[in-house]
Amino acid sequence: MTRTRYVELTKDALGRNEALVSLASVTMAGKLDKVVDVGLALSTKTGLQADIRSGNWADAASTLAFAQKNFSYLTTMNLMDTSGVMKATIPEFPGSSTSYGQDFSDRDYYKGAAKKWKPYVGEAIKPRTPLGYIVVPVAIPITSPAGERLGLLILTLRFETITSWSESIDAGQDGIVYIVDQRGQLIAHPTLLPASHVVDFSSVPVVQDLLQGKHGATVTYNSVEKVQRVSAFEPVGNYGWGVVVGQPTGTAFRERDTNVTNIALLWLFIIVTLECAMYILLKNRDTIRLQLDENNDLLGVAAIIKYSEDAIIGKTLKGIVTSWNKGAERIYGYTAEEMIGQPIEKIVPKNRQNDNREILEHVKQGQGIEHLETVRLRKDGTTISVSLSASPVKDIRGKLVGVTVIARDISVREKLHKAEIKLLTVTALKEANEELEAFSYSVSHDLRAPLRAIDGFSKILEHDYAAKLGPDGKHLIDTVINSSQRMGALIDDLLAFSRLGRQTVQKQQVNMHELLAEVYEEQKQNYPKRKIRFELHQIPAAQADRALMRQVWVNLISNALKYTKNQPTTTIQITATATAADVVYQITDNGAGFDMKYVDKLFGVFQRLHDRTEFEGTGVGLAIVKRIVTRHGGKVWAEGKVDEGATIYVSLPRASKK
Q1: Residue-wise pLDDT tens digits, 449-478
Q2: Are the beta carbons of 491 and 447 closer than 8 angstroms?
């Protein structure tokens, strides 16, 4: 085995662990995002905020009791006022009330949340209570719709809960995953489960790198566990935590330490396999996304049914009530004892009896009713607007035996209903995108290592055995090298496209005129012999992430320079049109242009309208442009004509005047 091969296989092992830790980081960030989302949803409950505003902290705590039961991973929930004084604990336990009135403003989690009045995941602590186990606090600011600061909701997660999350992550053969907080304290580990104290890992070299915001992979000795591992490490989102994936050196470097035979034939076979895998992956990408969306939609519907406060009523085919839940009691005012055995007509106004008959007829025919908006009677004689859904109930033999009706009070809870549906939809979409992007990111990382080996060994064959290969053999080796380099570029672009979904958009007022001039000066250095006429008109500013918009302009200006290479004089003109709300930027060139009937493909991933031999590229640049602009709340479109140039339009929210 050559030294070069030894180094390559070492990099491969480190690269595999880096891919695993990247997936672990995304997974843990997703778990914390979900906890924060639950906290934010609880903090915006109208009843909770009203009780806090009036000083009824015990009543406010009681409104959260259901959540503590439904979200089992929450150990306790605490309520504090804005100055950090403890007011209530859910659930109550012996000695918990002794902390009421105590000042916790010196705690890390209070300081972290109060600093910018945003959610904050704190460091591992041992509470000053009889609970006696290590917890991680998550501080959620409670803010009224008008922006008034009302207090803090503190959710606590047990060490064992976070460890169970980490154990669900694939750490590779014989590997482990552990998590540290912002001080380097252990908060998840498969074997170290502290009962009475927090374990300090801050002396471990990879943890020290994590505390400085670094990421990577290395061989290191853990002085706490007294073991040497190949350890990959990466921060967990923006939470200040770090995740480490460790693998015994013997396992990680097993391939490196094994003699490699028939390497040329093996890698030629691998490149064909990878080409097919990439083709299948790209061909089925939309199908995978649709399947993920469908699965998460089903999960969202199940969650709505499980936790709904709607009225759920069972009745026979003759309209006799057989079941009556708490939601029905709240909406209609009748108890279950008062309604079970009674005809459903008791809550149907005389002028709405046809609605009830229509529901029964549809169900008898095996059909359901969805979202029938109608009126029903309450016990006190008042009417209430509801949205009804009805479905048939069958026994185990498939015989129709009854009807289930779900009623929602749309006169009182219409606005809250819309907000809950929006929250569930956003959460489901976010989870689907995280899984898809983590999948793309992991696959792309795994493809890098074999490609580097293909390229390196092909160059060795070309250099050391050129005389034996002959012209035909040299041509085949050149084809392998070019193919591996082209696939490497495809993977790099796929990684860049995937990372955009994880990158936070930090909007600020951006001087677009200055940014465009800077990007052009940088790009023109790549074409020192070209004759270029660059016209940059006065360009307004916009609210945007400067780093992301720089990538947009780099992609568009480099495209304009690329597709005008066959012109005697390249002409690029950049102008803008401003409205009260938006700024539309347009960049026009006199290059190859395109046929407008293919404009819908222009911004798709790996979609190319020109042959690779004519104009280089991977077909991802404009897809990245579209994704960045869309995440800014803007739009991008194009116009062009074959051999007469093209114009790309970018619309962004306008910068506020100062």
Answers
A1: 676 778 777 777 777 777 777 787 877 787
A2: yes
